[in-house]
Amino acid sequence: xTGGYDEACAADxxxxxxxxxxxxxxxxxxxxxxxxxxxxxxxKPLWDLAHALAALARLTGARDGRDLVTLxxxxxxxxxxxxEARFAGTGEAVDARGPILPDGETGWRTTWSGxxxxxxxxxxxxxxxxxxxxxxxxxWLDDLAAAPDAExxxxxxxxxxxxxxxxxxxxxxxxPLERRFRAILGxxxxxxxxxxxxxxxxxxxxxxxxxxxxxxxxAEHFVTFExxxxxxxxxxxxxxxxxxDAVEGWEERLDASLADLAAAEPAETLAALLAALPDGPKIxxxxxxxxxxEFLRLEPFHRTRPLTTLRAASFGRVQxxxxxxxRRGGGGAGIAERTACAEAETYPxxxxxxxxxxxxxxxxxxxxxxxxxxxxxxGLSPEARDTLAAALADIRRVRRAGFDDPDRLAAGFAAxxxxxxxxAEEAGRLARAIAGLARQRPLDTAFATDRDVFADAFAEAYPxxxxx
Length: 468
Description:
By secondary structure, the chain is mainly α. The protein has 3 domains: 7-171, no CATH class; 173-237, no CATH class; 269-467, no CATH class. It has 22 helices and 2 strands. The protein has helices at 7-19, 24-35, 44-60, 65-73, 80-87, 112-131, 134-146, 150-171, 175-188, 196-208, 215-232, 250-262, 270-276, 286-296, 301-304, 306-327, 333-339, 347-372, 382-395, 406-440, 443-461, 463-467; strands at residues 100-101, 108-109. Strands 1-2 form a two-stranded antiparallel ribbon. A hairpin with a 6-residue loop joins strand 1 (100-101) and strand 2. The longest helix is centred in the last third of the chain and has 35 residues, at 406-440. Mean pLDDT is 83; it is low at 234-247 and 250-267.
């Protein structure tokens, strides 16, 4: 994948831009249209294209879609001066500036340079994906040639909008992220910086609108939003169609930034490291794995936004229970109890579990070091020797599968060393972040406040189910 689009899209764009020898400005425009980065209406260029083709059909007396295809693919009509020389003054469908399409008192019009751009877009739509949609688009142009008026142009624009939306879904993996970003940016009023309470406020707004997204899911969207916002230097700059052209080298910056975001290796995430830990010896029990996955899934929020991490672990689990019960057809008192958050785990209890996980991981690290470094290694301080000897003795006290087999134990810890070290480090960061949060606001008070907020949101979102 290149940037925010895949190799097929890059090839489709290159075929048009190089074949028509488009200027840098026109290349930028075409790329933005294909990516949907045109504001305020991403489909406006398609509406213009449909009207331009209708105007050309009236101007040339096109009999069917093939005549319009010929015009769109004619390299001799790739420039504004050639279009003007060919069509200026040839009929009622042009004026002094370029083609027009009458529609009552208003009508549609563009310039010759605008027409040149729109024909480049027409070539892209016709030839993309190795002409896979060529026959379908030509059929749409047949319909337009039969009725080259404003109504026919509007019908074609709707078809083109659906067509390009499907293309983006297939070839622009970041398109779903962009849609989420637009909603988040709208809520933040264009701000890039946000707080834990902004995340909570956005989720509550979505709940009030009947979307019922999981709080953890919304928090994950903010994780991605924060990463992309930092990479792109501010997504707010993308809100105006002309803003990119004012930034020197914006294409290279955008490609590189989106590539960094989209090409992130899953193996680098804490969740992937956790999943890759060997099954034996049992360094972590299933419950410990689940707890770590719960606390670290919002990386890097576990160290930068501990309050959101606690909210997701406590009330995100409550909401998951609600969703699961509803999927099984449950309701009534069980739903009412959950909407009241009676089962929510308190923040002090979560902090205690984090502390227990951190202590266990530190213990496992000491054992890993003792297995890797013999206690009689030269140069060790007396304190280090004592620590290694204590860790070796500690192995006999661990009642877990695989700890009674020296060979299996050594091999297992050797395979888990790197992942174990990072997991222990990140668990320690989470513990320190929660301790810092507790110094700012008591955890029991924060939990009581949040429980009221989440209970109100659940009761409002699931009223029918709670009384069923």
